[in-house]
Design goal:
It comes from Zunongwangia profunda (strain DSM 18752 / CCTCC AB 206139 / SM-A87). One of its GO terms (molecular function) is zinc ion binding. It is a single chain. The protein is an alpha+beta fold and 755 residues long. Among the domains are: 138 residues, Neutral Protease Domain 2 (Neutral Protease, domain 2, Orthogonal Bundle), CATH 1.10.390.10; 178 residues, no CATH class. The chain contains 20 helices and 32 strands. Helices cover 28% and strands 26% of the residues.
Length: 755
């Protein structure tokens, strides 16, 4: 028994010494494990499948804004269309205003330590004031006159159906509600009012009605709670909305205004008709003087504005007696006209009257060029302090001059950038309708990428707007700008493919990094032609539909024939960063003289060095040998090679031969986790430069180092990786050979103070 035990122990020891296997961790492995399987609903190519469906919700609403008591009340009738193949036992609605309830769980999310210092107003708001109570007050839910049973769970409401809603059937019911409108300046909410010193308010109202949740083939019901960062997943539908406000208010909203003759003055109607044919500059519909005059009193009478909108996923409106209104027409590529609109208080001038509507017009043109022609009849930019938020056809935007009407470039470009961004959201996600609650980057990141393109094109259309700059000074999308985030503390960095609620730096994670990734994909990895075709394909496949991340990733590959699994994995599924450097550069000469290393190589393969007509490579180092070789071509240094060429090439072929004098072996390393194309600039002894781009596949078999041999007729004096900062490389200290010495802190201080 002891012998057997001994044998077993020996066998176990031998077994433990065997090399252990591992899972495939190659950066180029396919994303089969990460991707959802294709189905009849969503194909492996990234297109909607033959069984794709989406449910729809149509709304008829009557809304009343009580300006005196800052309260909004409404009643809606919803017709929900079950286009799925499934029977539904209940419906889910979103009650996003419930995040404003004074006891909302969202108010307690995250950590809240004591700050060592705070402003008196902030401290009082946080610890002394009674919490604002702005959640929905549901008064009734009915169908056909009968009450429906419902259950509210925080920001979601389940409607229990009297009987299951069969596939292909529709269900109509109504909801009556009200809530207190919040001051969005105080709590930085997406919706609410701003109160001015004269007591009047500007309202930007959204998430103001109980809205249907999405039901689809991916999530079933998307009933994830609203915690504040993850935005909205909504179905498409048609809207008929009547909004009653004080009679001296001017309003803009989602949809086509049905009773313009009733709510516009005669002068406003004349100006509106002029604006419909003004393609070069905005026409003021309601002047600053008229807005100021209306603000001298509080109107008690009311007026009802009526809107209709088809195939939209949401509805929002802005209204105030202090609003100025201007418009201009935009000619689209299909020869259709769209109205670019701005509405703003006098505090926005002179900046807004000069630039807002022009920015809207340019944005519509740029986004349409990169995706699809804008399908709605207007796009509205509303000036709201500290706001940046989007809804179909309308958005809130910040950017305010000081009390003297002065503004810096930072304020100007901030305003322009947020208008481009929020108007651009009409395309992503208002039309390409991704799930913002789950995948923030699909609307924010993709939109920020197209925003970057639109900003650059705006600078080209309006060079006077960027006077003093070579190009529009975009904040996001440029690779170098994301470097500080990518090389930051990994404890506070999440992959792009993370839920917005899980992320510390949402601006970098959901906006900046994906925008940069797509810009790099377009400029450095795929090239503009392939990228633009694939991006167009994605946008047009999924306009007015609900895409997932896999649909985007698959379409980009399907339409370009570029395998990008390595790119999606590295940039979107990990927090790896780019760091590629020059590890070593060796110089070689070619000779007929045998070398020790050459002989060893031939003998290793069973050849006799004295019988093989071989040529040899000599590494730089032997000064006397180099002196005899320098300046000569390889044919001059190798008689054997010269004889071979003379015997095997025609005179015409010999005339076309490249005959280098120098050979270099350059080794590149990759301390960073991301694999990226290897972009190298070589500088020669005559001062000339040459750019060489190696495909990302150079890293396929070795994730650490890559060696390249360079044959040259000129001596190489410098090698630089990524000279134009295209890849977001986080460490430039290893990018050059010879290594560029950077001064230490003392030397920098001395250099800055000398003289």
């Amino acid at each position: 028994m002891f012998v057997i035990a001994g044998v077993n122990a020996q066998e176990q020891q031998q077994e433990s010494q065997k090399p252990q296997g591992h899972t495939n961790q190659n950066k180029f492995r396919q994303l089969y494990q990460e991707f959802r399987d294709p189905s009849m609903y969503r194909t492996a190519s990234g297109a909607p499948g033959e069984a794709y469906y989406q449910n729809e919700a149509d709304y008829k609403m009557d809304i009343v804004l009580d300006d005196e008591n800052t309260r909004l009340s409404g009643e809606e009738t919803i017709t929900y269309h079950n286009n799925s193949k499934n029977k539904l036992e209940y419906l889910w609605m979103q009650l996003d205003q419930n995040i404003r309830k004074k006891d909302a769980p969202a108010l307690e999310k995250g950590s809240s330590g004591m700050s060592p210092a705070s402003t008196a107003s902030r401290f009082a708001d946080q610890y002394l004031k009674e919490p604002f109570d702005g959640g929905f007050n549901i008064e009734e839910v009915k169908a056909g006159g009968d009450k429906l049973s419902y259950t509210i769970n925080n920001t979601m409401m389940r409607i229990d159906l009297p009987e299951p809603l069969e596939a292909g059937e529709s269900f109509t019911f109504s909801v009556k509600w009200w809530y207190n409108i919040n001051n969005h300046i105080v709590d930085r909410a997406r919706s609410g009012y701003e109160q001015f010193e004269d007591g009047h308010r500007a309202y930007e109202i959204a998430q103001f009605f109980p809205r249907m949740a999405v039901y689809n083939d991916v999530e079933g019901w998307q009933n994830m709670q609203f915690w504040g960062s993850g935005e909205f997943a909504l179905p498409f539908g048609d809207y008929e909305v009547s909004i009653t406000v004080p009679a001296d208010h001017v309003m803009e909203a989602t949809g086509v205004l049905q009773n313009r003759d009733d709510v516009y003055t005669k002068d406003m109607m004349k100006r509106y008709k002029k604006a419909q044919k003004s393609y070069d500059e905005p026409v003021v519909i309601r002047t600053q003087e008229e807005a100021v005059e209306a603000s001298k009193d509080f109107e008690r009478k009311t007026k009802t504005w009526e809107y209709k909108a088809e195939m939209v996923r949401d509805f929002a409106f802005a209204t105030s007696r202090r609003f100025i209104l201007d418009m201009m027409a935009v000619k689209m590529n299909d020869d259709s006209d769209v109205m670019a609109v701005s509405i703003y208080p006098k505090e926005g001038n002179p900046l807004w009257e000069k630039w807002s509507t022009r920015v809207v017009a340019s944005t519509l043109q740029s986004y349409s060029d990169h995706t699809f022609i804008y399908p709605y009849h207007k796009a509205v930019s509303v000036h709201a302090k500290n706001q940046g938020m989007e809804y179909p056809m309308i958005c809130w935007n910040y950017g305010r001059p000081d009390e003297n009407g002065e503004y810096s470039d930072r304020v100007k470009f901030g305003m322009m950038g947020v208008i481009i961004h929020e108007v651009g959201h009409n395309f992503f996600p208002m039309i390409v309708n991704s799930d913002e609650r789950q995948w923030g980057w699909m609307d924010e990141g993709i939109n920020t990428f197209v925003q970057y393109l639109a900003e650059q094109e705006f600078g080209e259309r309006y060079p006077e707007a960027i006077e003093g700059y070579d190009t529009y000074p975009s904040r996001r999308g440029i690779p170098a700008n994301i470097v500080p985030y990518m090389r930051g503390n990994q404890d506070f960095i999440a992959p792009i493919m993370a839920n917005p609620e899980e992320v510390y730096q949402l601006g970098n994670n959901a906006y900046g990094k994906p925008a940069t990734a797509l810009n790099i994909l377009r400029e450095t990895v795929m090239g503009r032609e392939l990228f633009d075709h694939a991006f167009h394909t994605y946008a047009q496949r999924w306009m007015f539909k609900h895409p997932t991340p896999e649909d985007f990733f698959r379409t980009m590959e399907d339409a370009s024939a570029v395998d990008l699994d390595w790119f999606w994995r590295g940039w979107f599924y990990t927090t790896d960063y780019t760091d590629i450097g020059v590890e070593d550069v060796k110089k070689y000469y070619v000779t007929d003289k045998q070398t020790e290393k050459g002989r060893e190589l031939l003998e290793r393969y069973g050849a006799n060095p004295d019988e093989v007509d071989a040529i040899y490579v000599v590494e730089e180092g032997d000064k006397e040998f180099e002196k005899s070789m320098k300046g000569k071509s390889i044919l001059e240094n190798s008689k054997k090679l010269n004889e071979y060429v003379m015997d095997n090439f025609s005179s015409e072929e010999r005339n076309n031969l490249k005959v280098p004098k120098y050979f270099y072996q350059v080794t590149f390393n990759k301390p960073g986790g991301l694999v990226m194309p290897l972009i190298v600039e070589f500088t020669y002894d005559d001062g000339s430069t040459e750019m060489k781009k190696y495909p990302v596949q150079v890293w396929m078999k070795n994730d650490n180092t890559v060696t390249k041999t360079i044959a040259s007729n000129k001596e190489i004096t410098k090698v630089v990786v990524d000279p134009d900062l295209e890849t977001a490389d986080v460490d430039l200290s290893n990018n050059s050979w010879p290594k560029e010495e950077t001064p230490n802190e003392f030397e920098q201080f001395k250099n800055n103070t000398d003289g």
